Write a sequence for this structure.
């Protein structure tokens, strides 16, 4: 592989910085309930969904999804921990964002740990989400956090408790468990 030129190196740094800003804008727009701003962070044909559903596509569908999902939340606070961006030039990149969210709902504090799996696309000089998929380690009422995170049914909002997406869905996790003491969640 040939060494990158200074211009190529600067372009990569700028692209990664702009993509990191995109992720920050997303969390702030969701928390501010600025649904128009959330939708504008996606490409016109962009999609959003969870690991266990087909998701929605297009800005109008994304607006409807967020209006429905955020309805009834008193507040939310999304914050990013780590962000791995894979970018080799051009107008497309991928990334994985490790995050937490706190939400006030129905007199309860809900806490979530999650990963977003993203595809980014630069359109008219601006980075947007082309595809965003969300997977949860847990999504629990705060009082259940200590005992609940040892249980497989760690997604407890909205609706009926469900199996957590992570880490159980990962091949590396299943391989590790199969070759060690077999200790998994209860």
């Amino acid at each position: 592989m040939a060494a990158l030129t200074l211009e190529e190196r600067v372009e990569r740094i700028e692209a990664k910085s702009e993509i990191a800003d995109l992720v920050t804008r997303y969390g702030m727009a969701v928390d501010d309930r600025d649904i128009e701003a959330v939708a504008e962070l996606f490409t016109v044909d962009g999609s959003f969904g969870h690991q266990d559903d087909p998701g929605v596509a297009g800005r109008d569908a994304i607006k409807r999804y967020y209006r429905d999902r955020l309805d009834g939340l008193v507040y939310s606070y999304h914050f990013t921990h780590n962000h791995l961006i894979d970018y080799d030039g051009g107008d497309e990149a991928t990334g994985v964002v490790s995050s937490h969210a706190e939400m006030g709902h129905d007199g309860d504090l809900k806490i979530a740990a999650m990963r977003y799996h993203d595809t980014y696309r630069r359109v008219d000089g601006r980075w947007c989400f082309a595809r965003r998929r969300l997977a949860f380690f847990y999504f629990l009422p705060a009082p259940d956090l200590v005992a609940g995170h040892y249980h497989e049914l760690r997604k407890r909002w909205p609706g009926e408790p469900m199996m957590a997406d992570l880490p159980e869905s990962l091949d590396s996790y299943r391989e590790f468990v199969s070759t060690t003491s077999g200790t998994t969640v209860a």
